[in-house]
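Cross-check.
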Amino acid sequence: MIWLLVGLTAFCLVLLAYAFHARRLRDRYQALLDSVPDLAWVKDAQGRFVVVNQAFRDIWQIKDPHELLGKDDFYLSPPNLAAEYQADDLKVIRTGVAIRSENPFDHAIDGQRWMELIKVPVYEGKTIIGTAGIARDISERKQAQEQLEWLAWHDPLTQLLNRSYLERQLSIWIDSGLSFSLWLIDLDHFKRINDALGHGAGDAALLQVAKRLQTLSDQVFRLGGDEFVVLAPLQDIERIDDLLHTILNQTIQIEDLDFQLGFTAGRVQFPEDGQTASQLLKHADIALYRGKSAGRGVVSVFASAMAKHAVLQLELERELRQALLLNEFRLVYQPQIRLADNRLIGYEALIRWNQAQRGEVSPVDFIPFAEQTGIIASIGDWALDEAIRQLESWAQAGLAVVPIAVNVSALQLANLGFADSVIARIKRLPVFLQCLIQLELTESTLMQAPSIQSIRQLTQADIAVHMDDFGTGYSNLAMLSRMSLSKLKFDRSLIQNIPDNHAHQQVCRALLDLAHALQLEVVAEGVETQAEALWLAEQGVQYAQGYWFSRPLEKELAARYMDGVTE
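Predicted model, tokenized:
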């Protein structure tokens, strides 16, 4: 009997020791789970909570760590969610495969949050006895993902839909088979705002334009820069065409200043003008380009002939670039004559192009395009080098050389290193020839801000600069007086039939008075009749050039002309 009591006592002590040890293990296990920042829990095979950690209790605002033990999901969650959670548990127990999901969750304090949920089976030996889960708050990650998704389809400045979404939307509309119109819109003179007031002011202008365009359609896109697209059904064509003129020709106000922007648009229709998104955008761009060429401020409607013209333009651009490599350009030289005695006082170097397939191409056909594409800068540099080379060649041949005036483009002047480059090239000539290379710039080019510094550098280096086409632009007279120009060249439009045109006579006399006041010599361009030459001489015009005196001469004829007339 005593031994029985001793045995029972020993057994009880062992149980107490085991229970104490188990409790310590459980406490340590609980402490370990509580240190995990994510929500963690363990459930038995019936879906009842066995263990939950501190983060889990906190999100449910449960203070008693034992409150949830033995409870299931229906104790915490709405019935529909609780049923989903239990179905997941049963699936894990049945298949032994972990599951992962992302679910919205209504937080008692913070409102809706997003949780990433992972559930795994819990084994005892080879038997699944329950599930363990962990849930992580991924709300910030979700917000970041949503922001990235938004940025993928929207322009961050205007919050309009972007090019990527436009291409997606066009594919949907095209697949639907319904007809629609697309307007590609480009703001006119937008660069002036950026240049005058900075990019912040430019952004403010774009925001105002975007807001106005949204009144036209719910399908408005910004492609980048100052380009926008509007999509609308065909029945809205007339309405949108009219409203574009109304809303985009209104002034916009920036920093208490009013700006008149204006616009040009190219319009296409599906399916007539293209079967794919890329075709429609390409043809809208072609129509837009034609609208700008026609004078801006219009909605230019695409026509198939425009596409053919665009292909020809691309071919022309390729041929122009090849022309420099293949040495297809040459200079011809038009004499400039002193009217008092008909003596040669200089040449204007004019570019000519003999293309292998096209033959002789008129400057009227390629110079404007070269300016639009930027190729004119390379052509202009070639022309200057060729004029320098030709001047030196004539001098070495013993000819009594005269100045050569070379035309310079706005793109060349805008290059910050242009003036230094010109000065360096001219300074490599013998000293007595350096003053014989002169530059001609159009009135509009001279009045552009980037040109002013280059002109000052050139004139300070004693390089003569002439204003070409004077009378066709809008010169700032105060600026003109500070430019140290050498000559003004009156445009042909002022000279034509001047003996019989009283209005042209009045303009010409006024410009002559201005030139004399500025102490500038005058060259009249495009003199084609004796009567024009005599009238100009009577008014005190010193120099002239034109077909009455001579057509532009090839270099060999120019050398003979110079040799004969100057002797």
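Residues 1-22 have pLDDT under 50 and may be disordered. The domain at 324-565 is CATH 3.20.20.450 (TIM Barrel). Passed to J.P. for a second look.
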